[in-house]
Amino acid sequence: MGQSHSQSQTHISVLPNEVVVSILQHLPPQEIKSAVLVCKSLREMGEKPRFWTWAVVTVNTKDDLQKLKRPRLQMVQEIDVTQGSHGGTGVQCNWIKEEGLADLFQVIGEIPTVKRIRGLEFCKGIQDIEPDLVVGVLNSLEELNLCYDFYDEEDFEDMPLRLEAEQLELLFTAVAEKTNLKFLQVSGQDMLKDMDKTDETDEVDEMDQMDEMDTISPELFAAAVSNVEEVILKEHFKEDITSKQFEALYSIIAVEDRPVRKFTCL
């Protein structure tokens, strides 16, 4: 006579929590999203931020900021503002581009795990944000395009991500000391003091005069730029970066073993 075999089923709720957590840790993103819909216990365990670090949060409108306050997204690493900041249509989609950057930075300031902000270089209003907040957010990123190539020269003051002198100096000071940045591109930043305040009667060579008006000292410029693994410096105007700043950068790279591994000057 043949033997009958019965299979017993064990509900996941009777498994120890550490076993369930171990299972969840090995699930791909789509399976995680499905697992939290199975039952209340899985949802509670699956809400832990460690399981959602892969998520890319899209922020186009002010209401989208509420996503970043969800418990599961408190360790998110990437935020996407490209739809609203580059090619979006309508008032709502343009919110992040025209006026929403300050609100976004306030929220990101509470999530230190954010490493990338797609489309940040197209957003306006950074000059109006408190310097310490700007530095805290930008210095925690892994990639930073501190520039914008496509702008009307008549609107230079409104150029996206053109920092105020205080913001720029504080940022370079922070980067020189310790930074998460792996990639940095700098272009169109105000590296000089206001030329209207200089004495026009001084008979000095124009380039020497520019070197005396560095917003960022050559030493600070060199220490910050050389502390990032990959750097691109792109000059829109000849006064973007002074000769002394370049000299200091080349000197520190030649003499010290700095983190910078790839340097491009355009």
Structural account:
This protein is about 35% helix and about 10% strand. It contains 11 helices and 7 strands. It is of the alpha/beta class. A 4-stranded parallel β-sheet has the order 4-5-6-7, with no helix packed on it. Mean pLDDT is about 80; it is low at about 85-90, about 150-155 and about 195-200.
Could you give the topology of this structure?
Elements: H1 17-25, H2 29-35, H3 40-46, E1 56-58, E2 78-80, H4 82-85, H5 90-98, H6 101-108, E3 116-118, H7 131-140, E4 143-146, H8 165-177, E5 183-187, H9 206-211, H10 218-225, E6 230-234, H11 243-255, E7 262-265
Helix pairs in contact: 7-8, 8-10, 10-11
Jot down its keywords.
about 35% helix; elongated; 3-stranded parallel beta sheet; alpha/beta; single chain; about 270 residues
Integer-rounded radius of gyration:
25 Å
Task: Kindly report how far apart the N and C termini lie.
Answer: 85 Å
The number of distinct helices, counting runs of at least 4 residues, comes to 11
Backbone shape: elongated
Total count of strands = 7
| Spatial order of strands in the largest sheet | 4-5-6-7
Provide the structure class.
alpha/beta
Q: Name the helix and strand elements from N-terminus to C-terminus, one letter apiece.
A: HHHEEHHHEHEHEHHEHE
Strand composition percent: 5-15%
The poorly predicted ranges are: 85-91, 150-157, 194-201
Overall mean confidence score, pLDDT: 82
What's the main sheet like?
A: 4 strands, parallel
Give the quaternary arrangement of the chains: single chain
